[in-house]
Design goal:
single chain, 202 residues, alpha/beta, four-stranded parallel beta sheet, three-stranded antiparallel beta sheet, binds flavin mononucleotide
Length: 202
């Protein structure tokens, strides 16, 4: 079974034509890197809400919604709009099973105040991160001055390690989606059961 992410209707239609089984409609809310096919090409930056509906209007191919879904009500909303399934990332970062370090967890718990930002400065490709020192430091960098992925990612990891050695933890690749403030700290299995209960209540 093959799944591929689409960040636009054109990418979704290319996925459907290629015989891949599921389209993952990845909205601009999503944490981390999105599967935008060509980093040089125009990115319509569609929300999960609009991207899902626009893809569904153009193809009967099954679509999985991704980006900003944090609880059972969000899952119910996406299924109501015609999604075959949902994909959640940020919702699991605080789970004990996740590899996130303590600085990342602490920053995520404070996301209600600081929010998230999209930057290419951490990895060389646009990705959504908790708004930390790295995001603020690079905010005014011109796009053409940032080396491509993955060179910048290697440099970014080295910078994060050097900063952490000086007890500064705001330079990590702390990927998170716009729903970051809604992340809950509990074992992954318990979180899945909570989603099901909330979805059924919706
Ligand atoms: C820590 C983290 C790393 C991610 N890395 C990637 C990635 O390398 N490539 C990609 O296409 N999506 C990546 N994603 C996005 C997920 O595949 C998923 O689409 C996204 O998390 C859904 O949005 P949400 O974070 O709002 O739940 C990442 C997400 C997180 C939270």
């Amino acid at each position: 079974m093959l799944l591929a992410t689409a960040t636009s209707v054109a990418e979704a239609l290319a996925i459907a034509r290629s015989g891949i089984d599921f389209i993952v409609a990845q909205g601009i809310e999503a944490g981390g890197h999105r599967g935008h096919f060509d980093p040089q090409a125009f990115d319509p930056q569609m929300s999960t809400f609009t991207l899902l509906q626009a893809i569904r209007q153009q193809t009967a191919h099954p679509v999985i919604a991704a980006g900003g879904i944090m609880d059972g009500a969000g899952i119910a909303a996406m299924l109501q709009l015609g999604a075959t399934g949902v994909q959640l990332g940020t919702a699991f970062v605080l789970c004990p099973e996740s590899a996130a370090n303590s600085a990342y967890r602490t920053a995520l718990k404070q996301a209600g105040e600081s929010g998230t930002a999209i930057t290419a400065a951490i990895s060389g490709r646009q990705a959504r991160c908790l708004r930390n020192d790295f995001c603020d430091f690079s905010r005014d960098f011109a796009a053409h001055t940032i080396p491509d992925y993955p060179l910048t990612y290697s440099l970014g990891k080295a910078l994060a390690a050097a900063a952490a050695a000086k007890n500064q933890h705001g330079f990590g690749a702390q990927w998170a989606g716009q729903g970051a403030a809604l992340a809950r700290e509990m074992p992954a299995g318990e979180l899945i059961k909570t989603f099901v209960t909330e979805w059924q209540a919706s």
